[in-house]
UniProtKB/TrEMBL annotation:
Annotated signal sequence range: 1-20
Residue ranges annotated for the Aminotransferase class I/classII large domain, each copy included: 26-378
PANTHER family linked to this entry: FI04487P (PTHR43807)
Organism from which the protein derives: Asticcacaulis excentricus (strain ATCC 15261 / DSM 4724 / KCTC 12464 / NCIMB 9791 / VKM B-1370 / CB 48)
InterPro entries for this protein: Aminotransferase_I/II_large (IPR004839), Kynurenine-oxoglutarate_AT (IPR051326), PyrdxlP-dep_Trfase (IPR015424), PyrdxlP-dep_Trfase_major (IPR015421), PyrdxlP-dep_Trfase_small (IPR015422)
This protein's name: Aminotransferase class I and II
Record's keyword terms, sorted: Aminotransferase, Pyridoxal phosphate, Signal, Transferase
Cofactor: pyridoxal 5'-phosphate
């Protein structure tokens, strides 16, 4: 048995969702919308399923989707991408992460991650023989400093992994922090794998700034997006990689032996969806922002202290700030048992054995009725 997996449990999302199902708890843990997103995109998938070929799609992605991705990012983020050279379609962003790590680093290379970080990163790096170098961030800003980067970077640094908007912290990387990170990455010629799956779920009129928008990172940056979050269809698992041609062809070599290609009816539907007008996406974000407000107001009224939520489906509760003297995991256990609400402790996004992070993550991509029920129940856990 490979020791990387032998030492791991089941993901916190699966564990909490199973416990919620078992106990009948409200599942505000795993991040997924209560109702399926974009009906017109689902209809396009249904139509493609019946009317078009269901045989292998091209390995790097259907031409129509490659073009739609390049066009979408050109229009929404000002990127200039050649669909044939700078884009690769993967079976979800997680496959894109795997393809990046497997094809861009070698055993012994160091990869810097910012803790708390999405749970898939460290096992992928370790399985590829890489060494995970963690930079610990703290609430409420969750920003890295120059001193932290100076300590983390070394001769062996080959890659940095970032997430913006961030899951679980919800923060966007500010322009000046991008510039600081770019300075280190250029000096060390380190790739920047940027998980931007939440790029469209950004609140309060903020603008997402991704790795390919950062001067100097054009040839080092790997931008990863996902249809699941763009269209609130998290089960679809259609991911996009955008990067310099050299990196895309290298990652395609990993992708061809991971999943080879991605279901064609989903690719057709995503290509259609990416062409929808901006107003359609704005509408979705506005609805999510209203949910965030309802959720925040309800929690604060019950005495919970929440941290800023700049994007994603999540709002985090600061436990000590709320007068709760429990670690995240103990609070999560109590919330499940006594209040019937499943939440995710941020410790699940940190290396075991480190300092505990007394924050829990809750998903608000739910109906008003569910959110109100959640607030009512959580008062018991206080
Ligand atoms: N991205 C989702 C979350 O953060 C979980 C995905 C999964 O369950 N693997 O909740």
């Amino acid at each position: 048995l490979n020791p990387v997996y032998a030492g791991l449990g089941t993901t916190i999302f699966t564990t909490m969702s199973a416990m919620a199902a078992e106990t009948g708890a409200l599942n505000l843990g795993q991040g997924f919308p209560e109702t399926d997103g974009f009906p017109e995109v689902r209809e396009a998938a249904a139509k493609a399923l019946i009317d078009r070929s269901n045989q292998y799609a091209p390995m790097k992605g259907q031409a129509a989707l490659l073009e739609a991705v390049a066009e979408f990012y050109g229009r929404t983020q000002g990127l200039s991408l050649d669909p044939a050279r700078n884009v690769l379609i993967t079976s979800g962003a997680t496959e894109a992460l795997a393809a990046a790590v497997f094809s861009l680093i070698s055993p012994g290379d160091e990869v810097i991650v910012f803790e708390p970080h999405y749970d898939a990163y460290a096992p992928l790096i370790e399985r590829a023989g890489g060494v995970v170098v963690r930079v610990r961030l703290s609430p409420p800003d969750w920003r890295f400093t120059e001193a932290q980067l100076t300590e983390a970077f070394s001769r062996r640094t080959r890659m940095v992994m970032v997430t913006t908007p961030n899951n679980p912290t919800t923060r966007l990387i500010p322009t000046e922090d991008w510039a600081l990170l770019a300075r280190f990455c250029i000096e060390h010629q380190a790739y920047v794998v940027s998980d931007e799956v939440w790029e469209q779920v950004v609140f309060d009129g903020a603008t997402h700034k991704g790795v390919l928008n950062v001067p100097g990172l054009e040839t080092l940056g790997v931008k990863i997006g996902s249809a699941g979050k763009l269209f609130a269809l998290t089960g679809w698992k259609v991911g996009f990689v955008c990067a310099h041609e050299r990196l895309v062809s290298q990652m395609a070599k990993a992708h061809q032996f991971l999943t080879f290609s991605t279901p064609p009816m989903l690719q057709s539907a995503v290509a259609f969806g990416l062409g929808l007008p901006k107003s359609r996406f704005v509408e979705e974000v506005a609805a999510l922002q209203r949910s965030r407000e309802r959720w925040r107001a309800g929690l604060e009224a019950e005495g919970f202290r929440t941290l800023p939520s700049e994007g994603t489906y999540f709002l985090n509760i600061d436990l000590p700030g709320s007068g709760i003297a429990l670690e995240g995991e103990s609070f999560a256990r109590r919330a499940l048992k006594e209040a019937g609400v499943a939440v995710i402790p941020l410790d699940a996004f940190c290396a075991p054995g480190g300092d505990s992070l007394p924050v829990v993550r809750l998903c608000f991509a739910k109906s008003d009725a569910t959110l109100d029920r959640g607030i009512e129940r959580l008062t018991v856990a206080r």
